[in-house]
Amino acid sequence: MMSVVLAAGGTFPLLPVLVVLPVFGALAIALTPSTRSETARIIALMTTVMTAALGIYLLWNFDATDGTFQNLSSQS
Question: Most CB atoms closer than 10 Å: which of 16, 24, 53, 71?
């Protein structure tokens, strides 16, 4: 199982989600019928907002004074 230690002390795979989320959004758009272009736009917007929010969260919790690796994902 992959996990990441958050600043709040919890675990959640942030980096893999940050990478995979746009892929899932693209797949959802690809599976949307061409007659439903508004739905595809909403999916694209929601995927972009979620990816940006996750990236901002990671940036906000990044400690530039810490010389160690941060937000690591590990398999146990």
Answer: 71
Question: Any residues with CB less than 8 A from the CB of 74 and at least 6 apart, and which?
Answer: 2, 3
How many helical (H) and strand (E) elements, i.e. helices and strands, does the chain have?
A: 2, 2
74-75 and 2-3: which strand pairing? Answer: antiparallel
First-to-last CA distance in the chain?
A: 6
Rounded to two decimals, what is the model's pTM?
0.74
Residue 64 in this model has a pLDDT that exceeds 70: yes
Question: CA torsion angle for 17, 20, 21, 24 (degrees, to 10)?
Answer: -140
Q: In this structure, what are the phi and psi dihedrals at residue 18, rounded to the nearest 5 degrees?
A: -60, -35
* Residue 22 amino acid letter: P
